[in-house]
Amino acid sequence: MPTPPSYFVPRPESSLDAGIRRVLNGEVSTSPIAFDEMSADQLNKVVANAALSNQDRHSEAVSKADSYSFQVAHPEFIRTTANTKLVNYQLQTWGITNPTYPDLVRAYEILRDSHLLDIDKAALARQEPRSFTGTLTKQTFYTVDEMISAERQAAIQQVPEPSEEEIAFENLPNSQVLPMLKRLEHKAHHQGDALETGSNADAWLTLHPEFIDSIHNGKLMRLQLATNGVLEDVASIADYETAYQQLRASDLLSLNQKALAKQHREELQQRASDAIAEGGTVFDKTSEAEMYEMDLETVRKRANAVMGR
Question: Cα separation of 143 and 133, whole Å?
Fold first, then answer.
């Protein structure tokens, strides 16, 4: 039985380990890095890169190369946003974070056979054999296996060496690392709050289609929130509603008049519908279907009659 082709290539020495070795050999400056002066985003990038193991870096490089190889080998796969999302979702359901070529082919074939993908039928109809040009190597190959192997080697060779900051962070004692991690944790928590409050604003907007999401209205809302002692980045849906009702009473907001008219009609129709259900009103002989066919002025008069009795 012939030996199946191998999709994996020998793993090189860890670039991070190599960097640390250079430090120990005095080949790189060991001057202290001012981590405390870095922004949270800069520090987060250093920590994330330093945390990558040799296997992580290798897996990311291989996955990148295989993604290119898959696209070359399957030109019929149209790289639309929808297609990419479908493939990524399928891989995620399998718990795959750094897919290799076989993973991509497996996901592609399942989605293709389910008729979920947009496929270039002309490209699919082309006859084999054909050659393949590697994205990274720019070389021509006559089998997919040859291209995958060469592309992986090229991707691994392009893995960047660790920066001086990453090497320095890797060699810090725990007593210095922990405060930095707490700083990043605090930053991430604050960003989570910002996302939540942003969602609160979006959720509140869905309740009020009459509210025009303009710069003018936004400034008024922020001012009213501040007047109420609430900062926008911590405002709840209830806070937005309170501020809106206050501003609406002042007639300062620009509102969608068509949406307001629709709301008003729905309110009157609901009031009339309640009156029909109650009995003993001017609506007694009016069916609900007939009521909904009435013009707005008639509904208003009858509703007001009910309220005034």
Answer: 10
Mark whether 20 and 165 lie in a shared domain.
yes
Tokens of 288: 């609900």
Encoded tokens for 26? 């005095």
- In single-letter form, the type of residue at position 294 comes to M
As a residue count, the chain comes to: 309
Q: Establish if 185 belongs to a structural domain.
A: no
Half-sphere exposure of 294 (CA within 13 A, CB side): 22
Q: What is the pLDDT of residues 83-110, one digit of tens each?
A: 888 898 889 888 998 999 999 999 999 9
Rounded to whole angstroms, the Cα distance separating 227 from 258 reads 30
3-class secondary-structure state, position 127:
coil
Asked if 132 and 140 touch (Cβ cutoff 8 Å), the reply is yes
Instruction: Encode pLDDT of 237-263 as tens digits.
Output: 888 899 999 988 877 888 888 888 887
Residue 219 maps to a domain:
yes
pTM above threshold 0.85 = no
Of 91, 17, 92, whose CA–CA distance to 58 is shortest? 17
